[in-house]
Amino acid sequence: MENDFIIFANGVQIENFTDANISRSKGEMTGTLNFSLFCSYVPGTPVMTQALAGAEIMAYVGGNLAFVGKIDRRMGTGARAGKPGTKNAEPSSGSGSGDAGVSGDVNIGPNEYTVSITARGQTKQLIDSSHKHPTGTMLRPTTRQVIDALVEGTDVEVEWMATEINLDKVRFRDGAIIADELHRVGNENAYFLYETRDGNLRVTDDTGRAIGDPLVLGQNILQFSAEIGEDVARGEIRVKGQRTPNDVWGEAAVLDTQKTITDASSTNKAVVTLQHYGDGTPEALERRAKFEANKRMAESKSVNIEVFGVQANGEPWDVGNIHYVEIPPEGIFDPMECTSLSYVVDASSTLKTTLTLSPLPSGGVSGGSSGAGFDMPGLDDIISAGASRRGLALSSVEYPVSWGGPMLSISNPLTSAFTLINQLDRLKGLAKDGKAKPPKRLPATFGNPRR
Amino acid sequence: MTTLNHFADRNRDQQDGIERHVFGEQEYTKGGAIVRVRGTGTQDEEAVVINQGVSMHVPKDTNAEVYLIANGSDTNSKFAMLSIPRDKQRQWSEGNNGIQKWDDPSRALEFNTKRMYADDDHFATRGGMLEVTPEGVRIRGPLLVDGDIGSSGVFKSPNTPETPLPAGGSAVEVPPFEE
Lengths: 451, 179
Known about the structure:
Chain A is an alpha+beta fold and 451 residues long. Helices cover 14% and strands 33% of the residues of chain A.
């Protein structure tokens, strides 16, 4: 069961596909699913008839829901036996082009035949569609209201896991696609937006706040690669902005509206200056600077690990999960966040599951402290246990170096608390009434038809 | 969102187009007015003031916003649009327009639906030929009237009505005009 890879199109199980792959990541708004069926003959009638462009599609890996979306394209290709492989459809990209291209196109070749299907996740609507806000302006909204307004009219549900922030005003660009406007709001307010395995849009300023299996070399790591660099990280990040409320103007709005944070963990002392959009309150500028530092640190340290199809307890791997990672030859004994996940199954029925993990974001800035991750229960214990198992002191001049998150400090710390409302909502998700959800766990009655 | 170059909006992370600053100092050169403006960690100098015939020269470091317009994508060449302090704006009645003193909304030349109205108790033409003050109206020159002259008060003259000009009278003392 753990290596089963099962696909449904319009509720009907797709049988006998030859290969398939799924990928989702924190960096892409939507996931992708590609699969194909190869025939060593030219069938007399269409095959995989449920798999047509626009069909709703779900995939389960190891019995767990792994993908919900819609088919973008179906391509049938004929070729002569012995010629180079049949033509594959262009794979979908998570960043998504809006072009539908030629859907449902079928070309029958001489004596071999391949059908290739490409699909994107449920949130592809956000990439394809312009926003439908009636006026383009929202006055005194919260970030959650803004995101709900942008998503309204699509089938996408928002899984809200972020701190809700009061804004002065938000103006959407007329005709802009939803994803671009969502990214603007996300960037300005330090939110990550990505698709969950059940097709929702997760909005978080944190990790997925779930702790998964430890990944320990010699126990459950099949393969790994670990890359650490300093070219993306920055030692100093300055964010400049302006105030936008009507009653804040002139010098109060334009002068000294900046925040500078330093990352002591970065060996690259280069400076990056960012222009902040929206109301440049001290809180917003600091939040933006911290967000940039966390993103850069995640890019600087990435670990790719091939694992078994599911976790030891049968739970699925997932983007946003925190795992303790122990790879002694790299000096890694740290909790990390899964930022990308891919499943690949080939013609030999071998399932390859790969996780990309990055350092946890730093939650603390003000007061000059550093802190790995937000105040999540149990995290400190994992960090201290990892340090104990490492058993050697880290040095800045000799490998291994720290695989932890950025160590941030600010020269002019905030005295006021961040604007927080509805803190309890951090762990709640929104549900749209009346919408049937696919089960997150597939009943055991479904076997793998490919065996 | 973990990628650093994911969407086109990232190109906003540079200064370009129109920028918002506050006033620094203005200087008149042979090439017209130029300003220095203040910003957060920036100080643009020699921005050419856009002048469409209505202009001003506010004191150094006045708290007034200035908008700089880049010459296309060339940030080396910038033009400035001056504005007065936001809290000094005259509140014009609907349907009216005009010009105000930059730091005093009560003093204005207003075009309303009935007339052009100088909303001030001091008004003068060059050299004080015509001057209006709270004390009265001065005319420092000949007054030529094609029609009748009337008065609701007493007509005063250094010459008595029985003594026609120019014999017998003395000149009325008209104070000099001060700029």
